[in-house]
Design goal:
Blueprint (H helix, E strand, L loop, with lengths): L7 E4 L2 E3 L2 E5 L8 E6 L5 E10 L2 E6 L9 E11 L1 E4 L7 E3 L15 E4 L10 E2 L10 H4 L12 E3 L5 H11 L7 E10 L1 H13 L6 E7 L4 H20 L4 E7 L1 H14 L13 H9 L3 E3 L5 E9 L8 H9 L2 E5 L1 H5 L6 E8 L15 H25 L6 H18 L9 H12 L12 H7 L5
Parallel strand pairs: 9-14, 12-17, 12-18, 13-14, 13-15, 15-17
Antiparallel strand pairs: 1-7, 2-3, 3-6, 4-5, 4-7, 5-6, 8-10, 11-16, 16-17, 18-19
Helix pairs in contact: 2-3, 4-5, 6-7, 9-10, 9-11, 10-11
């Protein structure tokens, strides 16, 4: 232990919100753990946010209420914030800082890990491969989720992204491998937290889930630390215990609001819409903790969920998220208004790693062609609908009417499925063939003739 760890300071220079400034100290480290002991013996934990020669800005977990400028003991621990991790965390519920909130005792750690993680060496990364079945047709067939991928959900206020997240947690499977889920809720309301807990308990999947919940009334730093605690637990399970881990992070917009709040407190010059200029690199420090490592069996796959203010996909949070991640799933307000669940809009959604992980030897031989044909045909349906709104449906050709019928069936049967309905990939592909067979054979230009002969069933 360094000698300066034994040094203790008793005077603060300034307190502002959740931050305090301390001067005339040894040179502290960035992200260093700080212990604050009050006169009455209460101990609080803080983290250095900014350091310089002889001073530090510290954010206190839980806030600075009741802290005095004098007569409190400040000790710099000489190490970052850490968490004790163990396989026994599965089936447990923790707050945003890794403390149990399920009424059970603390977990006995197998290992102590730095919550900030260690960067994956790019040369040690393995390319994401093999799919995770979510049981949702629009994802499994059209925007396949791959182990080691980062695939965010772009949603909006009032849309059922929480239900979709809960459904994926309940239904997700990988073939013949150890699989678990780490769920992190940031700034979520109490009733939303209860919904997730109840949903996982009732369906019996909680035993295979670790939950970290930072509620809406928690301090902004807790919200910022929650995904880091969750991902540290995921890294332990993936790379020490050889498990495939799916990490669901909701809501990343709340995380970014906490980052903006903290930046304002520190008096930093704002960038786009008041967010700090380092929003991109901060988001990357979370998203890039997904992936696979060569010679390791396990993997970390991320589904970050974010709500776009005013459904604006060009807002800084979805915009920067899209630069870092490998695609996006877009939740659509119009489909939701028509009672279609899950209201996933297929056309703007994308999985960039899908093409290398479907087809012969991966999923099913007909998967790439069918997915491409469904996408192209649905895009044409939307164009025909636009024309029909101008000239009227009676002016459309017979083929156009078939396309409209296909579009209706695609939305009401393929996109639409029940909250408790889990479709296997095989069932989703067969359903896709049923619906694409509404169109004449000569329209199926993206599917091989061999596959058409085998699976096509034209419906008049």
């Amino acid at each position: 232990m360094n000698m300066h760890n034994l040094r203790q300071y008793t005077e603060l220079e300034e307190i502002a919100g959740q931050l305090f400034v301390i001067k005339n100290i040894h040179n502290a480290g960035y992200n260093e753990l700080v212990e604050i002991t009050e006169e009455n013996g209460t101990v609080r934990i803080g983290v250095t946010l900014e350091v310089g020669e002889g001073y530090a800005v510290v954010q206190v977990l839980g806030g600075t209420t009741g802290l005095s400028l004098k007569n409190c003991k400040i000790r710099f621990k000489g190490k970052p914030l850490e968490i004790g991790v163990s396989s026994d965390m599965l089936g447990r519920i923790f707050d945003g800082l890794g403390n149990p909130i399920d009424g059970m005792p603390k977990v006995v750690p197998e290992e102590i890990m730095n919550v900030n993680g260690t960067a994956m060496n790019p040369t040690a990364r393995a390319y994401p491969e093999n799919i995770i079945e979510t049981g949702i047709s629009t994802i499994d067939v059209m925007n396949t989720l791959v182990r080691g991928q980062k695939l965010p959900f772009f949603s909006g206020s009032g849309l059922p992204h929480d239900m979709i997240a809960a459904q994926i947690v309940r239904q997700a499977r990988v073939k013949e491998e150890e699989f678990c889920i780490v769920f992190a809720g940031m700034g979520i309301k109490y009733d939303t937290a209860r919904f997730f807990i109840k949903s996982f308990e009732e369906t019996g999947v909680l035993d295979n889930v670790i939950m970290f919940l930072s509620l809406a009334d928690s301090p902004s730093l807790t919200r910022l630390m929650t995904p880091r605690f969750a991902l540290t637990a995921a890294e332990f399970l993936a790379f020490r215990k050889d498990m495939h881990v799916l990490v669901v992070l909701t809501d990343m917009s709340n995380y970014c609001e906490a980052l903006r709040e903290l930046s304002t407190m520190r008096g930093e010059i704002p960038a786009r819409k008041g967010y700090p200029g380092y929003l991109y690199s901060d988001l990357a420090s979370i998203y890039e903790r997904a992936g696979r490592i060569k010679d390791k069996k396990g993997s970390i796959t991320q589904i970050p969920i974010l709500t776009m203010p005013n459904d604006d996909i060009t807002h800084p949070v979805p915009d920067l998220t899209g630069y870092i991640t490998e695609g996006q799933i877009v939740v659509d307000r119009e489909l939701h208004a028509r009672g279609i669940y899950p209201p996933i809009s297929v056309l703007p959604s994308l999985s960039r790693l899908m093409k290398d992980n479907i087809g012969k030897g991966k999923t099913r031989e007909d998967h790439p062609g069918l997915a491409s044909q469904l996408f192209a045909s649905y895009a044409r349906t939307r164009d025909i609908k636009s024309i029909a709104s101008i000239i009227g449906e009676e002016e459309l050709s017979d083929l156009d009417h078939l396309y409209l019928k296909f579009g209706e069936e695609f939305e009401t049967k393929f996109v639409n499925q029940g909250y408790n309905e889990r479709r296997t990939l095989e069932e989703s592909l067969e359903l896709g063939w049923d619906i694409i067979s509404i169109l004449p054979e000569e329209e199926l230009i993206r599917i091989s003739q061999q596959q058409i002969k085998q699976r096509y069933r034209y419906k008049k």
